[in-house]
Amino acid sequence: MSPTFASLSIYNYRVYFSGALVSNIGTWMGRVAQDWLVLTELTDHDSTALGIVTALQFAPVVLLAPWAGALADRFRKRRILLGTQTALAVTSAILAAVTLTGVVQLWHVYLLALLQGVATAADNPTRQAFVSEMVPQDRISNAVGLNSASFNAARLIGPGFAGLLIAWIGTGWTLVFNTVSFVSVLFALRMMRGNELEKPPLAKGRGGLREGFAYVRHRPDIMLIMAIVFMLGTFGMNFQITMALMATTVFGKGAGEFGLLGSIMAIGSLSAALMSARRSRPRLRTLLIALAAFVVASAVAALAPSYVLFAIFLVPVGLSAMTVLPTANSMVQLSVAPHMRGRVMALYMAIFMGGTPLGAPLIGWIGSEYGARWTILVGSIATGLTAVGATIYLMRRDDIRFRYEWDRGPHLNVLRLRDRSQALTPEQVR
Asked: In this protein, which residues make up the domain named Major facilitator superfamily (MFS) profile (predicted)?
């Protein structure tokens, strides 16, 4: 089997991957349908309302993340996922029902977004840490990359399909597709072979939350990665707001063209995810170069003079963003102790997704006050400052060295020193 798909040779991961792919497609359809419902059916293109919905979905990730991580480390992860996926299916079904019956109001969307956020707060760290139970240590990076590929393959299919369905049979029935898609991941979890899952020791007793915070506080390498993904997630990756505003207010397009933008961006995102799956180990230099590329690509997209050019520029935006995220995720997972993985990944997801309650309303307000293009440019500026700050920090550390090499073409090596006199080879760089 190709190194890109190595983890699919493992039965449990193969079953999980298949179910998650169907569910991810439904999730993207649900997101597009929800955004279209808010923007065009419940408000008159009110970007602030859309920002509030997004914030409510992600706020619980911040508030509940420490407890969710402790939960993931104290109980079997497959059992937790069965509960969280069921809760997400129920909330999706309620939103579809009130939409189809014509009684939906904006407060319904707000409330259901908050409830989905609560379920997601428990689901995300558990799902991230569950990877290490399905595959051996040497395939974690590959499995993380394939998970990202699944997510972005769904983004390639889901938004465009959702746009067509909204135009054909309406928003409510598109939400029904999302509800039904949760059955696939629930079925996959039931079909897994429990005796083939790795079973790390479960955390016991109190103090789990404090241990998680203390562990991260004494790991500056993890804190740096979390700072990078926080800024990228908070200001740079509000795509469900920025693409909706660009499509409707700048280019005057409808549901089909709006959904198509997500699918086009997913071409770059899926390519990046598959390339990440091929890498045996994540690299710090990959993270920094991809972050800089995102700054340039998003700024160019924001200034695009036409819908077609904007859509084209979304490909490198997706490529660079989805190079940063799997690389950062793998670096954290591979460097953390197994019994702390749930709590650390909960904090990681809280930092990444939890910035959205701060960024989404701000981005929505910027769109209302200054126009849709500035919703993207603000993210470019913030992410650019983050890239510069991270580089300066690393250059000032005694155990890091930057070196430019030209013998096989220009490229950057980021060398981590074991001590002040011994540098690792490029093959050992993390």
From this structure: 4-401
